[in-house]
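tool_call: predict_structure(chain=1)
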Amino acid sequence: QLQLVESGGGSVQAGGSLRLSCAASGDASSWNAMGWFRQAPGKEREGVAAIYTGRMTTYYADSVKDRFTISLDNAKRTVYLQMNSLKPEDTAMYYCAAGRPYPWYSRYEYNYWGQGTQVTVSS
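tool_result:
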């Protein structure tokens, strides 16, 4: 079993920045990637970014490329999502997930999920 706890959400004006954190505890053998997903009201949950632990390979949705950065501190077993130049359309509940996904953006391939943290961007 793996537990994921997110933190760092909040409200910010457009153009601002936030950093989300997700701390993992439990069985480390059950995952080789951690990802961030988001879900806005009335929309499906979508992949934002992911990082594979082996080579630290990262992937991003086109909508956040060059604005968001995912990173992993293996010693702390914590994944971060640095979000810069935030836009109102980034407003959503953000979820951390872990698993052995392929492709990275397939939410069905992630076995473990955090409780979510709200990000609200005002114009």
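agent: Residues 34 and 98 are 4 Å apart (CA to CA). Proceeding to next step.
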